[in-house]
Sequence to fold (337 residues):
Amino acid sequence: MRFALSEDQTALRDAVRELLGRECPPAAVRAAWPGAEAAPERVEAIWAKLAEMGVLGATVPERAGGLGLGACDAVPLLEEAGRVALPLPIVETAFVAAPALAEAGDPGGLLEGLVAGETLVAASLDGSGLVPFAGCAGALLLGAGPGGEIRLAGPEAAAPARSIDGARALGRVADREAGSPLGLSPAAQAAAWDRGALGTAAQLIGLSRALLAMSTEYVQERRQFGVPIGTFQAVKHHLADALLGLEFAAPAVLRAAWSLDRGAATASRDVAMAKSLAGDAAERVAGTALQVHGAIAYTTEYDLHLFAKRTWASVRSWGDPEWQRSRVAATLGLGEE
Fold:
């Protein structure tokens, strides 16, 4: 197998990168935080343009109005969404809900609005009741863990909740029986979980790349003793170690996408490995970014915190690294008896 993008995949990724780089600067992420002065219309416009490009319907079958693309096509796009800390539920809507709703026969008739960018779907399939982006979604997918029953509920099922990342519009669902079952098979329910974990891993790769880019630029500009701090050996080593972990994790994410597309027997294990590696790498990158920036990194006026907080929240979504490693161990027969 070859873990590289095709020409078409590269072209689509580059188009999305250009769009998000232009339309979703850090100011747009700030606009999604509670109490922000900027108008929310800016964030809504980004979603509409993603819909126009076909990104939101990328994994929807062609018969339902989508592009009919697979995980290998979608993962690079989700990485780009992570690179700008997109303050909208693109993983949950385009990568989890879209194929799940199509598989279930589109109960509630949400697919058309989803593809058109009119419907946002938030999802929480771990049974915790905490639903990222519930505050800006028109529908919720709720579940009790990998392979568990998935229910479709309205946004009124979630009450606002506090999050380390204010742009995620976190909600809390108190009623575990809220909504109606989608009627998916156990295999389809497990696949929905895997897509959520894989999509989040892809976003963590993008977030890590953004944090490393910010850090590299900063250490080239910040001077001490008359020279850029990036010339100091300790700073170089920290950044190199962070990059090393990221470059080990990125191919694992592509491998997991390949396994999902081909229905490999190891798909769930590969997704768990990808999420674990991406989470570990992202935490290290975020920590390194804080360290090399120094005190300025701890100010809310500086953009770094927008990306670091999204990273910390995402690492713990869809299974943290330790939990994902336990899934890998179980598939290898190394779990506790």
Remarks:
- The first helix runs from residue 7 to 23.
